Amino acid sequence: MKQIILAEWLKLKYYRTFWVILILSVIIPIAGNYTVAEIFSSKDLKQAQFLLGGPFSFPDVWQTVACVSSFVSGLYGILLIVIVTNEYNFRTNRQNIIDGWERKDFVFAKLFWVMKLAVLSLVVVAIVGALLGMAYGSKSFTFEGFNFVFYYFLQVVVQLIIALLIAVFVSRPGLSIVIYFAYNMMIEQTLVTILKRSVGAIGGLLPLQAGDELLPFPGTKMLAQSMPGGTTTYDTYVYLIAMVVYITLGIWLVFRKVTRTDL
Amino acid sequence: MSILSLQGISKRYGAIQALSGVSFDVPPGSVFGVLGPNGSGKTTLLGIVTDVLKADKGSFQLFGKTATAAERRKIGTLLETPNFYHYLSAWKNLEISASIKQRGKDDIERVLRICGLYDRRDNAFKTYSLGMKQRLAIAAALLGDPDVLILDEPTNGLDPAGIAEVRALIHDMAKAGKTIILASHLLDEVEKVCTHVAILQKGNLLLSGPVNEVIQRTDFVELAAGNNEELVRLMLQYPGCSSATIANGKVIASFTANPDPAAINGWCANHGIWLKHLQLRKKSLETAFLEITHTAAS
């Protein structure tokens, strides 16, 4: 395992594109959260802040930051697609096997990136939440509500597994990124809307939506449910189970594809 | 124990049967040529051995064991095109290869020097010419000084000097007792280095074994005299001469057993024909190969 991690590091440590996308993936959620915090701290939105219960004060700040960050976490998926499809593009996925990796080692190597990027996203959100809570909030620091950061982490893992699946099955960089974007931005949301309208709350169990259901902006969920015809939702554990199932299914499909087909 | 043992390997791509029940053994210390025209299944066969392709049927062993990554790490392989990270230098690409092969970095300088790339070691792979990319692929195969090499068309893209260098390298490694599995459609290349051969055509194994046993290549003699027609008539009376024909101003005489040029010279002189040209030749592997594949096709 140590050798796999070392080889992956050697592949990317001098790859400029990797560093540029990685830095953007870290900066954009920070900038996004800072901007939202600044807007909420402006005079015009003081009233809204009162209605929503102080989204940048502890404990709500964890939920706020996780929610805002979930809008831009797709960048990590693009980075993963670049990492994986480069291997197919340069045919180094074949060379790694020829040189002495098992096919499953190749999958492990990419799953390491899934975990590394997801942990990085978690650390970034935790630090941003703590800093914004202290800078813009009116209550003292607490880890209460930190479970939302964990939900965000799970959602990023789901997102990365979707990116990995697309990269492994499509294998071409440009097409993979377009499909990933389309799914993230449009396809799933359309399916969610159709399912929620025609079937009901089950629409909220689609892969990315399951995370979104657990990460509403503080106060908005109660507002939505209190309105006439408001949405119904499942218990939290149902969404968590759904995400774990998607992650497991995705990993299984990637293993199946890489270990069984010609490279 | 064979280095590589194949049993009934078959592979199909849709309607195309790429390999049909191919079986042969590669003995240790041999330079084993896998021959065949383009599309005969050579690369598919080596792709299966290196686990980048999956066989539909059959099995194979490396070093007498079911092949795993551990066995592949003992083999230096160049399969088809050179595959490297375009944005990395030769040195950094070889660091990755060394890491996967679980070998130290201490051999990188040696293999880059052997392949003439040491001075360009810090240039990105994408800046290399086709020949340089091929040299880097050979360098990667040599990394760690493996006892077994699989080389698929190793002289692809090389200039004449590069081709000669690779041939010399293969000769040197064969002399050092290494086993080399060499796939090529360039028969001239194979003829100069191989001790054993397997010939494939449209996925079928036509024959395999030591070159001199499986390919009959009896010597023939090339002669010329003042009157070649007279020489042909005389040669047809020579004991053991099976045919004599004129081609390009010379008489080509074939024999049922290996001919003795001195005896032929004496025979001609005794019969009043003075030779101005006499040369013992071997049927080229290319001619033998074409005969074998043509016979199989018909």
Explain what you see.
Chain A: It holds the Pfam family ABC2_membrane_4. The complex is a heterodimer of chains A (263) and B (298). Chain A has 263 residues and is mainly α. Chain A has one domain. Chain A is built from 12 helices and no strands. Chain A has helices spanning 2-12, 16-41, 46-52, 60-70, 74-89, 92-99, 103-136, 147-170, 173-198, 207-214, 220-226, 236-260. The two termini of chain A are 22 Å apart. The mean pLDDT of chain A is 90. Chain B has 298 residues and is α/β, with parallel strands linked by helices. Chain B folds into 2 domains: 4-214, P-loop containing nucleotide triphosphate hydrolases (Rossmann fold, 3-Layer(aba) Sandwich), CATH 3.40.50.300; 219-282, Alpha-Beta Plaits (2-Layer Sandwich), CATH 3.30.70.100. Helix content of chain B is 34%, strand content 30%. Chain B has helices at 42-49, 69-72, 90-100, 108-114, 130-142, 160-175, 187-193, 211-214, 228-235, 261-270, 285-297; strands spanning 4-13, 16-26, 31-35, 57-62, 65-66, 75-78, 148-152, 179-184, 196-201, 204-210, 219-225, 241-247, 250-255, 275-282. The chains are: A mainly alpha (263), B alpha/beta (298). The A-B interface holds A 3, 6-7, 10-11, 14-16, 86, 90-92, 94-103, 105, 260-263 and B 47, 50-54, 68-70, 72-73, 77, 79, 81, 83-88, 92, 95-97, 99-102, 140.
Notable traits:
heterodimer, A: 263 residues, mainly alpha, B: 298 residues, alpha/beta, Rossmann fold
List the helices and strands and how they pair.
The complex is a heterodimer of chains A (263) and B (298).
Chain A: H1 2-12, H2 16-41, H3 46-52, H4 60-70, H5 74-89, H6 92-99, H7 103-136, H8 147-170, H9 173-198, H10 207-214, H11 220-226, H12 236-260
Chain B: E1 4-13, E2 16-26, E3 31-35, H1 42-49, E4 57-62, E5 65-66, H2 69-72, E6 75-78, H3 90-100, H4 108-114, H5 130-142, E7 148-152, H6 160-175, E8 179-184, H7 187-193, E9 196-201, E10 204-210, H8 211-214, E11 219-225, H9 228-235, E12 241-247, E13 250-255, H10 261-270, E14 275-282, H11 285-297
Parallel strand pairs in B: 3-8, 3-9, 6-7, 7-8
Antiparallel strand pairs in B: 1-2, 1-4, 4-5, 9-10, 11-13, 11-14, 12-13
